[in-house]
Design brief:
Layout: E1 3-7, H1 13-22, E2 28-31, H2 42-47, E3 55-58, E4 61-64, H3 66-76, H4 91-113, H5 115-119, H6 124-149, H7 160-171, H8 183-193, H9 196-205
Parallel strand pairs: 1-2
Antiparallel strand pairs: 1-3, 3-4
Length: about 210
C-alpha cells in the first residue's frame, strides 16, 4: 500500500502523523507550506477541496478529515489496541469522544487561531475571548471525566481519542486557560508525551513548543 501524508507541522495533520508513527507504517511526507498559502493552490485543492490538512493519499486516492483518518488507521491496526472492536462495550464511548472532540472542542481551537474567519477583523478579540471561555469550560468538563473515570478517556488504557485530545491541548496551549491548568488533563498529556512516538513526531515535524 502506497501512503502519502500531506501535512503542516503542529496542525490537525499532527494526529494522523502521530498514529502513523505509532503503527510503524511506511509512508511519505509532503509538506504543505502555509506561509506560501500552498493549501489553497489548484494542485492541492484537487486533492482536498477544503484547502486544509491533512490529506492522506492511499494508493493514489485522496482522503481527508483528521478524525476520520485517525479512526480508519486505528481500525486497520487492531493489534495496537487503540480502537475498541465493534462488540467491545467501550465502542460507543470511543465514538462519542471522537465526535465530541471534533464537534465541540476542535472548532474553538480553529476559531481562536483564525478569529478573522470566524467573526471578521472588527470582532477578532471578542471572538478569541469567547473561544477561550468555551474551551476552558470543555477542559473543566473533560478533566472531571478523567478524575472519575481516567486516567485516559476510556479508562485504564489509551485510545485514539486520547491522541486527538493531546493534539487539541497542544493547539490551545497559548490560551488564557490552557488544558494543562487542569490536573488530570495535565497528567494525561504527560503520559501521552512520554510515548516514544511523540518524540519521533516532534523530530519529524521540527517542533519544540510544548514538548
Amino acid at each position: 500500500m502506497s501512503t502519502i501524508l500531506y501535512y503542516a507541522p503542529g496542525s490537525a495533520s499532527f494526529l494522523v502523523h502521530w498514529l502513523m508513527i505509532e503503527f510503524a507504517m511506511p509512508y511519505e511526507l509532503r509538506l504543505v507550506d502555509f506561509d506560501s498559502n500552498a493549501q489553497k493552490s489548484p494542485e492541492y485543492l484537487a486533492l482536498n477541496p477544503n484547502g486544509v490538512v491533512p490529506t492522506l493519499v492511499v494508493d493514489g486516492k485522496a482522503y481527508h478529515e483528521a478524525p476520520a483518518l485517525a479512526l480508519w488507521l486505528a481500525e486497520r491496526h487492531p493489534q495496537a489496541g487503540l480502537a475498541p472492536a465493534l462488540d467491545d462495550p467501550r465502542r460507543m464511548a470511543f465514538l462519542q469522544w471522537m465526535f465530541d472532540l471534533a464537534n465541540e472542542v476542535q472548532p474553538l481551537m480553529r476559531g481562536w487561531w483564525f478569529p478573522d474567519a470566524l467573526a471578521g477583523e472588527a470582532q477578532r478579540e471578542a471572538a478569541k475571548a469567547q473561544c477561550e471561555k468555551r474551551a476552558a469550560q470543555h477542559w473543566q468538563r473533560i478533566d472531571a471525566h478523567l478524575a472519575a473515570h481516567g486516567p485516559y478517556l476510556l479508562g485504564d488504557a489509551p485510545s485514539v481519542p486520547d491522541f486527538f485530545l493531546v493534539l487539541l491541548m497542544r493547539i490551545g496551549r497559548k490560551m488564557a486557560t490552557p488544558a494543562t491548568h487542569f490536573p488530570h488533563l495535565a497528567a494525561l498529556a504527560t503520559k501521552m508525551k512520554a510515548r516514544p512516538s511523540f518524540s519521533q513526531l516532534y523530530a519529524a515535524e521540527g517542533l519544540s513548543e510544548w514538548a
